[in-house]
Structure formats: C-alpha cells, structure tokens
Amino acid sequence: MIHFDIITIHPELLTGPLDHSIIKRGRDKGLIEINLINLRDYTTDKHRTVDDYAYGGGAGMVMMIEPVAKCLDDLRKQRSYDEIIYLSPDGKLLDQQLCNRFSLYKNLVLLCGHYKGIDERIREHLITMEVSIGDYVLTGGELAAAVLCDSVGRLIPGVMSDETSALSDSFQDNLLAPPVFTRPAEFNGWKVPEILLSGNEKLIYDWKHDQALKRTLERRPGLLSDDPPN
Ligand code: ADE
C-alpha cells in the first residue's frame, strides 16, 4: 500500500491520468491511495491567492510559502511522510532505481509548483527532496507528479495482474526489454523469429536475454557501464 498526497493548484490535470487502467485498478483495490489537495483551499483571502510578485523584480509570479506551510502542517497531523517531494527540473533524475526506492515507502507528498515560481524558503525548509522526470522544462509539476505516481504505483505488489511483469521490465536489470511478437506468425512476409515458435523454453530464455543485451548495447550503452546515470 502506498499513499500519495499531491498538492497542486491544478488538480484537474491529475484526475484524468491517474484514473484509468492499471493505476485505477490499484486504487480500486485499495493498494494505491491518491489524494489531490487544492492549494487554494489553504488560502485566507477572498481571491484565494497562492502567488505574488517576486521581491527584487523579475518575470513571473512566485508561489507563496504560507499556503504551502499551512497545507503541510495539516497533512503532517494526519500521517508522517517518508519524503516531501518537490517536482522540479533541478531535482534528482527519476529512474527505475529511484522508482523502486519510492515503492517501498508508505506516505509521500508531491508538491507541484511552477518552475521559476516557488519561494526558495519552501525548498530550503519544507521539502525533503526534489525530483525531476527529465532534462526538459514542463509548465508545472503536475505531469511529473502523474509520471511518478504511475511508475511507482505499478510496482506495488498486487497492482499488476502478473506481478512478474514489473520485474521483467526494461531497466529492472539495467537492460532494455527484448522485442515481443504476437499472431500472426507471418504478416506481409515479415516473420516472427523461428525460435519463439520452437517451444524450447531454455532456447527462448537465452534468445530473449541476448536480444535485451544487443538492444541495450545499440541504444543505451550507458546503462551497462558502472557509472550510475544520476
Ligand atoms: N517541473 C517542470 N519541469 C519539470 C521536470 N522536468 N521534472 C519535474 N518537475 C518539473
């Protein structure tokens, strides 16, 4: 079981992606809990203001510390958290290893902010970790939070119908996945590799491993080196 509290000013960006397919099934089974919190519920003014002009000038508005602090105070009264994560391109790159680590946790907060626009004191004092989903800039952290919930949620035992399928993923052994085929055995003259039709389990296992290795060498040789990509 894993519980996510996601703090956002755009909850509607997260309802769709996390309410279908495997993650929905995990939620229905009570194995994944996703609680969307609208940061505006922690404001006190009529306009439900969550941002303000930057001290010293500069482009764009800055997310204020007070609603975030209030929200986190409220959440901490209900449970203790393994990490309070701010989604940001400055953060630690999310890879399979980090997903595996998160999947062992019980309670996570994901704070979605706006790049360039969150008071630095939130980052210094209120969050415990920053996570990036890649070296590109999104308009906000919401889609990154959805990626994190999806990639971590599917690792929770019982969420995937065949538990071994998460273990045989690309990256779990630092190898990309081998190619897969289904019927028909021939289409347009393009044939499924003979060995997969042979019924010989040992040969098929070795073939898949060779293919995974070949694919990794060709496409992502960095995964095979000792240096971690992070
Ligand atoms: N917010 C904006 N860009 C992001 C990224 N690449 N990863 C995580 N959060 C972000």
Task: Summarize the SSE layout with pairings.
Blueprint: E1 2-8, H1 12-15, H2 21-28, E2 32-38, E3 51-53, E4 61-63, H3 65-78, E5 83-93, H4 96-103, E6 107-112, H5 120-126, E7 129-132, H6 142-153, H7 164-167, E8 186-187, E9 190-191, H8 201-219
Parallel strand pairs: 1-2, 1-6, 5-6, 5-7
Antiparallel strand pairs: 3-4, 8-9
Helix pairs in contact: 4-6
The site of adenine has 12 residues, from strand 5.
For the structure shown, list the relevant keywords.
alpha/beta, Trp Operon Repressor, Chain A, Alpha/beta knot, 230 residues, 2 domains, binds adenine, 20% strand, 8 helices, two-stranded antiparallel ribbon
Please give a structural write-up:
This protein folds into two domains: 152 residues, SPOUT methyltransferase, trefoil knot domain (Alpha/beta knot), CATH 3.40.1280; 55 residues, tRNA(m1g37)methyltransferase, domain 2 (Trp Operon Repressor, Chain A). It is built from eight helices and nine strands. The chain has a five-stranded parallel beta sheet, sandwiched between helices. The protein has a two-stranded antiparallel sheet with strand order 3-4. Strand 5, helix 4 and strand 6 form a beta-alpha-beta unit. Helix 4 crosses helix 6. The mean pLDDT is 94. The site of adenine (ADE) has 12 residues, from strand 5.
